[in-house]
Design a protein that fits this description.
about 300 residues; alpha/beta; six-stranded mixed beta sheet
Length: about 300
């Protein structure tokens, strides 16, 4: 007789830059979501799939919940908030500390209205003393009635197995949603665009990355399959930004290109010939048409 397995959807929420993508990549065991120390790194819902003997967890890594400043911000927040009602378990990631800011309180208000089990995940516990963690748990416990509270270090994988155990405890029994070798529903074009954006985020000055998007213009495999040709455009909001992205004599664009090519080659397990261009589209983050062009479609929210 077949042993019944559990399967369900789990969303990771939290303020921008708290380690949601890092945790998801750690659980899956490879890089699917891009990471950066800058806010607004994750803009769409990214589904990744973890399959084990116990069953299957489909993770939704959502954009951080925050007060929106433009149409792109509104899109990101509505994606994140809608997800709360659609999943079986919510993981709320926070950083260790006793101060609960306005951002955290705003999320707690959203969570107070859902019936979904909420597991509080205190990330980055490697940065504080062990005995302090209990104090942080106590502070958060007063904020909301959590189903479970787990301290972790997403970067090192500390307490990853405990967290997975608890997630499975609250998932329903049911059939698998994906084949066991599936790790993401992201098309490769989107992963390539995101990897280019990640490298740009890491290498560029603070004020520019928020205003960039990446579109893949050409992505094709050569007949014998050993090389991929990819052409992509980095879109920015100002002429001055274009100059910075290209850099003196094209040096910055070359840096972004070679760092992105390395990551894309690892994903495709093949050589990549990558060409990057830079275009200016003024205020694209406030244009429904341009946002849709770069893969952020309001109708899908």
């Amino acid at each position: 007789m077949n042993e019944q397995k559990k399967s369900g959807f789990v969303t990771l929420i939290g303020r921008p830059n708290v380690g949601k993508s890092t945790l998801m990549n750690q659980i899956i065991g490879q890089k699917v979501a891009i990471t950066s120390h800058k806010p607004q790194t994750t803009r769409n819902r990214i589904q990744t799939v973890y399959t084990s003997d116990q069953g299957q967890i489909v993770f939704l890594d959502t954009p951080g919940i925050h007060k929106a400043k433009n149409k792109l911000g509104e899109y990101m927040v509505s994606v994140a908030e809608r997800t709360l009602k659609e999943v079986d378990v919510i993981l709320w990631l926070v950083e260790p500390g006793t101060f609960i800011g306005a951002g955290e309180r705003y999320i707690a208000q959203q969570l107070a209205h859902v019936n979904t089990p909420v597991i509080l995940v205190i990330n980055k516990v490697d940065t504080v003393k062990k005995e302090e963690v209990l104090t942080f748990i106590d502070v958060y416990r007063k904020l909301l009635d959590f189903t479970e509270i787990v301290p972790v270090c997403a970067l090192k994988g500390t307490n990853k197995d405990t967290l997975l155990e608890l997630i499975f405890r609250y998932l329903p029994y049911g059939p698998m949603f994906y084949d066991e070798d599936t790790i993401t529903d992201q098309p490769m074009r989107q992963i390539a665009a995101e990897l280019i954006r990640e490298k740009a985020l890491k290498l560029l000055a603070e004020e520019i990355p928020h205003g960039i998007a990446v579109s893949i213009d050409i992505m094709r495999q050569r007949p014998k399959g050993s090389i991929w040709d990819i052409e992509a455009t980095i879109v920015c909001e100002r002429d001055s930004h274009k100059g910075i992205i290209i850099g003196k004599g094209g040096t910055m664009l070359k840096k972004i290109g070679s760092a992105a090519r390395y990551e894309i080659e690892k994903q495709l397990e093949a050589k990549v010939n990558l060409k990057l261009w830079v275009k200016v589209k003024k205020d694209w983050r406030d244009s429904d048409f341009l946002m849709k062009n770069f893969g952020y479609d309001k109708k899908e929210v």
